[in-house]
Amino acid sequence: VIKMPGGSAGGRSPSLVTPADIGPTIEEALGFEPNESLDQRSLVPILLGEPTGAREYIVSGLNDEEYAIRTTPWKLILPVAERSDVRPRQLYSKPEDRFEVNDLDPQKSDIADHLELQIWRYLDARRRGTIDSLPPLRKDILSSS
Question: Are 66 and 79 in contact (CB under 8 A)?
């Protein structure tokens, strides 16, 4: 959905990106030093086909009702709203389960538990302003599927 001036169109990247990356991307494309953090990074290196330090994960939220954490091999959806119509926690294998139909939480609860813990750590660090000092995910979470 982004094309740099003079760049080629139609490429894909396996990099984990978020809408928050658009601000630093525009800043860098205009020649400014991008304001980057764990939450937001410039996509210019990806757009130019340069190697980048891949993110281990991204966390997203929906109106404080549910959060999701996405790694290359996993996506965990964690409902946090206290309502009766809230769906249960769900874990999907990525990219295999593209349409998120096979919930693996019952079979892979150890992975789901660790990803849920990271969501709570992330939310706490964000509240405290210590987002860049979060512990990394376990290596088996980053490579298993």
Answer: yes
Q: Rounded CA gap, 104 and 77, in Å? A: 11
pLDDT per residue, tens digit, the chain (145 aa), is 677 776 666 677 778 888 888 899 889 988 999 888 767 888 888 888 777 777 889 999 877 789 999 999 999 999 987 776 778 999 999 999 999 999 999 999 999 999 999 999 999 998 998 888 888 888 888 876 5
Which spans in the chain are helix H? 22-29, 44-47, 109-128, 139-143
CA separation for the pair 117, 134 (Å, rounded)? 11
